[in-house]
């Protein structure tokens, strides 16, 4: 199986490959109510504190041309060996890694659909032995105005 990168839109929560992803999806789904997605003000990371170390929250810049990490969970820092908090993607990644991560972020943001990405951690130094699954969920800045992505990771799920 090729683990470099597999992106797909998730339409059924049963398709989510890992427990943290399903838990965040159910929280996101509960908070959105009858809207396409919840607003950032609807979410409280303390509601899902047990999963927060596996999360990132990205703010879209220039309608998704770039993203800044508002939050980068502590478990991600320890697994990946860097803290992305406050950084834009272009300051954290380069070349193929930047293209790969930007593609999945822009797909989720611009389509306003949930996207699951599976692959090998090729973007962090000496971490390509790790496999990952990540769920990207769109979150509005205000009702029906896109603004953010919440992503949740799990490692070695394959």
Q: Kindly provide the name of the CATH class.
A: Alpha Beta
**Could you say how many structural domains there are in total?**
1
The gross shape turns out to be globular
* Total number of beta strands: 6
Structural class: alpha+beta
Write out the strand line-up for the largest beta sheet, numbering strands in chain order: 1-4-5-6-2-3
Q: Helix content range of the residues, please?
A: 25-40%
- CA-atom Rg in angstroms: 14 Å
CATH topology value:
Beta-Lactamase
Q: pLDDT average, as an integer?
A: 91
Strand coverage percent: 25-35%
Q: What is the second-level CATH architecture? A: 2-Layer Sandwich
Please mark out the parts with pLDDT under 50 across 5 or more consecutive residues, or reply none: 1-5
The CATH homologous superfamily corresponds to PAS domain
The quaternary organization reads as: single chain
Order of helices and strands: EHEEHHHEEE
Short description:
This protein has helices spanning 19-32, 74-80, 89-92, 95-111; strands spanning 6-9, 55-61, 66-72, 115-120, 131-142, 145-155. It is of the alpha+beta class and 158 residues long.
Secondary-structure topology with pairs:
Layout: E1 6-9, H1 19-32, E2 55-61, E3 66-72, H2 74-80, H3 89-92, H4 95-111, E4 115-120, E5 131-142, E6 145-155
Antiparallel strand pairs: 1-4, 2-3, 2-6, 4-5, 5-6
């Amino acid at each position: 199986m090729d683990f470099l990168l597999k992106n797909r839109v998730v339409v059924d929560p049963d398709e989510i490959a890992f427990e943290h992803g399903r838990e965040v999806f159910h929280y996101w789904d509960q908070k959105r109510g009858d809207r396409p997605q919840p607003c950032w003000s609807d979410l409280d990371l303390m509601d899902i504190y047990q999963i927060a170390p596996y999360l990132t929250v990205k703010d879209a810049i220039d309608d998704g041309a770039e993203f800044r990490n508002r939050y980068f969970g502590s478990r991600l820092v320890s697994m990946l060996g860097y803290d992305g908090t406050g950084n834009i993607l272009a300051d954290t990644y380069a070349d193929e890694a930047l293209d790969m991560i930007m593609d999945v972020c822009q797909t989720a943001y611009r389509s306003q659909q949930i996207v699951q990405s599976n692959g090998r951690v090729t973007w962090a130094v000496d971490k390509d032995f790790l496999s990952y699954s990540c769920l990207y969920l769109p979150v509005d800045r205000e009702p029906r105005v896109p603004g953010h992505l919440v992503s949740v990771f799990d490692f070695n799920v394959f």
